[in-house]
Structure formats: structure tokens, C-alpha cells
Please model this.
Amino acid sequence: MDVAVIDHRKARARNWFEALRDDICLGFEQLEDDAPASLYPGAAGRFVRTPWDRADHSGKPGGGGVMSMMCGRLFEKVGVHCSTVHGEFAPEFRAQIQGADEDPRFWASGVSVIAHMRNPHIPAVHMNTRFVVTTKAWFGGGSDLTPVLDRRRTQEDVDTIAFHQAMESACGGHHGVADYGRYKKWCDEYFYLPHRKEARGIGGIFYDHHDSGDWDADFAFTQDVGRAFLKIYSDLVRRNFGTPWTSADREEQLVRRGRYVEFNLLYDRGTTFGLKTGGNVDSILSSMPPEVKWP
Model:
């Protein structure tokens, strides 16, 4: 790869991820402001941003990021994180990363979002997009929705239908680049708990090692995934934030959150990647719900 070209692409990707982070934070703070005070008393939350740095496995400086956290009245816990890291993969990790077995040097930048809502009628959500460079270069990411009430965990639920339509639309504008059917299936297979024989949520899209040969087209697709996520999730929150809930709904929410914890700690490759590359532990584990039960 031409160094000047790849450096330009790195800068464009990083700038986009950070701009998307800012848009998401602003949008979520507006939802905090607009949620009905009768259901969500107290002051609206605001994001707190905490920078962090890392060293690679040899101890050399390896970039870092900014952890953005909000614990509000509507968003019980939400993290919107950006990082740009570089260095060398540890020897035991190189064979697991495309292109790293030839040369252990890497660069990666991305944005990651996880939201756990106070209202059980509002699904939890996850989104991340990233650009990774080793001896190869690719995009990865996606978004998936996790309703916490069993009666909402169906393919006929209005939120489920709207979310899948949004992800299909994000792919549909990029014919020959993004394959919605494949990425939906990949998401269903990835966000699955084998030990419980059940899905974590209702799916969405998931993709990795995405390189169609047209970098600009791949970047445009990844941008549309981020835009689609922000619009559809904001719509779903507004649709549901005025719905009252019961103590039984809250109990069901806390139990369902336990499945989320199990998946992230046992199976999630992003968690493993972050921890094994010296990422910020607080940022990586901020995906854990603030309250959870295993009755």
C-alpha cells in the first residue's frame, strides 16, 4: 500500500468516527432533555469525556482514545467511545488478525456505542464501526438491537421491523459493496449464546474484513451504517420513552441484561481485542449494564 494514500485514508476514517461520536452524544443528550419528567425525574444527564493512553505489548506508546459516558435519567448508562491505537500485536495474538502474521504492526481507529435504558420498553443497543490496517486494510462493524422484554423479542415487533429496515437501507444504497442478507445472517450467528441456545437480541448487521476493492465505497457504506444507527435508535427511543413500566418489567429487564453480560465476557471478540491490545479497561467494560440479576 502507498504510505501517503493509506495515511490519508486513516485520517479521513478517524475524523469521521470522531464526528459521528459528537453527533451521537448531542442526539442522546437531546433525548435526555426531552424525556417526560413524570417518568424520569431529576436533571438530564450529560456526557463526561475522559481521555486515555495506551502502550503496546513492548511498552512503547500506542495511541489512545476518549471515553464518553453518561448516566442520566433516561439513559441509565451509555458509552460512546472513540479510539485510535497502533503498535505491534503480541506474539500470541498475531495469528488471529488478518495480515498480522506477516508483520505484527497495526493501526486501528473506530467508534463504539452501547446504551442501556432505564425504561424496559426501550431496547438496549450496540453499534461500532472501525478501520483496521495491518499488511491489509479493512472496515468492520455493524449494529444490533436487544429488547429486554420477551414480548418485544419477536420479528413482528414494530421496533424490530423498523430497526431491520434501517440496517437494510444502510446496505441497500451500496449495491455490489454491502450484502444485507449476508451481514444480517452474520449478525444472527455472531450474537448468539451457545450455552443457552438463544440469541442475545433480535439482530441487525455485522461485518468484518470488509474490503470490496473500492475504499471510498467501503468508507461511504460504513458512514451510512453510523448515520442509520443514530436516526433509527433516536426514533425508537422517542417512540417508547413515554410508556410506563411495572416492577415486573424492571425485573425482566435486569434478568435479560444478564445474557448481555454473559455474551460480552464469554464470546465478544471486540472485548478480547481491546483487552489483549492494552485498551482502556474502563472503556472496554463500560458495555456492562449498571444493574443486572441472575435469580
Q: What stands out?
A: The chain has a mean pLDDT of 94.
